[in-house]
Amino acid sequence: MTTADGVTLEADVVVPESATAAIVLAHPHPLHGGSMRSLVTSELFRTLPAHGLAVLRFNFRGVGASEGTHGAGVDERLDIEAALDHLAEVAPARPLVLAGWSFGADVALTVDDPRLAGWFLISPPIRVVPVDSMVAAHDARAKLLAVAEHDEYRPPASAREITADWVNTHIEVVAGADHYFAGRTTKVADLLVGFVASFQGEATS
Fold first, then answer.
1. pLDDT digits over 107-143, tens only?
2. In angstroms, rounded to a whole number, what is the distance separating the alpha carbons of residues 200 and 106?
3. Which of 30, 42, 98, 184 is deepest in the core (most CB within 10 A)?
4. Rg of the chain taking only CA atoms, in angstroms
5. Per-residue H/E/C for 41-105
6. Over the range 16-41, which residues count as b (16 or more CB within 10 Å of their CB) and which as e?
7. Which CATH number is 11-198's, of 3.40.50.1820, 3.30.1330.60, 3.30.70.1060, 3.30.2010.10?
8. pLDDT digit string, tens, across residues 3-26
9. Residue 33 — left, alpha, or beta (φ > 0 → left; ψ -120 to 50 → alpha)?
């Protein structure tokens, strides 16, 4: 898939038969070893299709086989937009949800694509990009933050404080987890599946 500024990105996509929703996964910080094969991103990509969810993971520019160079969280917004375009093309299932972990969560907050039903934000540090560029924070659509109980970068109390004035935003604390969610990825997946189901319920009510 190719971004609006001409960068070709590496991506994997799985579309189950009769997919009921579609999820784009954005990975953690490229300069700290993050890629689409990092733990949480990989586990979500592996497990979500069993729930009838189409899922796409991709490498941000400059990572793996993706072209380009790191864009400090700014140019990466174009990468997410390209991923949304591609998944919407190959899997027109709705709702369409953007899920990001760490760096990917912060960049996801800068994306306000009208096709999105909501944002699922896994331990966002809320410091990668300027807060005033996080346009999703004051968007009426739903945002669910899955925050690790022992997160090293933005623990639950701090997350609650910094998001206090955000619109339609909820926090779920993942007990026993740190920022990397080793041994806790199933809980993250369950929260995401439930988040998607909340939109499906609205559609059928």
1. 999 999 999 999 999 999 999 999 999 999 999 999 9
2. 25
3. 98
4. 15
5. HHHHHHHHHHHCEEEEEECCCCCCCCCCCCCCCCCHHHHHHHHHHHHHHHCCCCCEEEEEECHHH
6. beebbbbbbbbbbbbeeebbbebbbb
7. 3.40.50.1820
8. 999 999 999 999 999 999 999 999
9. left
Extents of the domains making up the chain: 11-198
Give burial (CB, 10 Å; 0-12/13-18/19+) of 183: exposed
Q: Span 146-159, mean pLDDT?
A: 98
The residue type of 52 is G
- Token pair of 144 as six digits: 């669910």
Six token digits for residue 197: 């189901």
Token pair in block for residue 4: 């609006």
pLDDT in tens, 49-90: 999 999 999 999 999 999 999 999 999 999 999 999 999 999
